[in-house]
Amino acid sequence: MRIDPAELGAERIYRLMTGIVVPRPIAWVTSLSRSGVLNLAPFSAFTFVSQKPPMLAISVGRKGADYKDTAHNILDTEEYVIHIADTPLMSAVHDSSVEHPPEISEVEHLGLETLPCDLIKVRRLAAAPVAMECRFRQCLEFGEAKSRLIVGEVVMFHLRDGLVNDGKVETKALDPIARIGGPRYARLGEIVTLNTVFQTPKSKD
Fold first, then answer.
1. What distance lies between CA 94 and its chain's CA centroid?
2. End-to-end Cα spacing for the chain
3. What residues form DSSP beta bridges with 136?
4. Which residue in 98, 123, 166, 167 has the most C-beta neighbors within 10 A?
């Protein structure tokens, strides 16, 4: 089967790509508007781009002709929190993707408890097993839709007690959820451990 993207509109290409690039980790992001509204939204175009300093990237698209509230908030305040959600939070993650007017806080609407961050003004979600305080570093626009790739530096990690063993996160205990095509989500399933291969150390520490 051959599909020519030149013959497809943006929405059909999006449906195709989100079914191919799977599973995708989800960045569950809290951000603060200029008027003080705490916004919450999930983004599955998400990865890390640097380890020192630690930097994460999310791709934020548009809602209609305008950018999503998260993009506006991050560029306005330059602070936000990226959370990793586990299975018990799956429904809340999905429900937070519903589009609301900017004056509506998804956090309040869903009744989610928050905690203060250490270094930034944006609050973090108490129930999330991982929360990463971020400061904005760079924004690039791509494609005709002008999706914004937003890169931020993690200035503080918050991890649930028991998740870290010898400096590494216990992935099974984390139980992260992933996005696949459509309104569907996935869990890790079977974890396969292979032999360790040699890699040149990334630094002396």
1. 13
2. 49
3. 152
4. 123
Kindly report the pTM of this predicted structure: 0.94
**Cβ contact 39:54 at 8 Å:** no
Q: What is the pLDDT of residue 95?
A: 97
Q: Does the pLDDT at position 67 exceed 90?
A: no
Q: 31: which 2 tokens? A: 């951000």
What's the pLDDT tens digit per position in 118-134?
999 999 999 999 999 99
Quick one: tokens of 197? 């291969």
